């Protein structure tokens, strides 16, 4: 299994707005080959710290998703988000190979 975390920080007063965006996400990734799960995580102490947690069956399928037209389309829409402060946030991405369960 392959896990990807994209963590970003937003002003705490905008955290709920970001959460709502993800609750209404397109779900295109859900249909990608090898996709296992999506979770949106909010730091319990720093409410403006949010992490997108994705689980994949393997690294190859994750990389195929990142190279796909659907991935590019979704991320182009993010750049056009009306709130430019949110649109300009660059997440810190970490990738993990599950080595034991």
Automatic annotation (TrEMBL):
Residues 2-90 form the ABM domain. It comes from the Bacteria. InterPro entries: ABM_dom, Dimeric_a/b-barrel, Heme-degrading_MO. PANTHER family: HEME OXYGENASE (STAPHYLOBILIN-PRODUCING) 1 (PTHR34474:SF4), SIGNAL TRANSDUCTION PROTEIN TRAP (PTHR34474). This is ABM domain-containing protein. It comes from Halalkalibacter wakoensis JCM 9140.
């Amino acid at each position: 299994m392959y896990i990807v975390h994209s963590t970003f920080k937003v002003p705490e007063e905008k955290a709920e707005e970001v959460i709502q965006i993800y609750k209404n996400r397109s779900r295109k990734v859900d249909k990608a080959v090898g996709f296992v799960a999506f979770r949106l995580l909010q730091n319990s102490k720093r409410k403006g710290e949010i992490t997108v947690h994705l689980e994949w069956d393997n690294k190859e399928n994750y990389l195929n998703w990142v190279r796909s037209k659907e991935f590019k389309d979704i991320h182009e829409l993010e750049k056009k988000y009306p709130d430019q402060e949110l649109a300009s946030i660059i997440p810190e991405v970490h990738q993990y190979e599950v080595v034991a369960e």
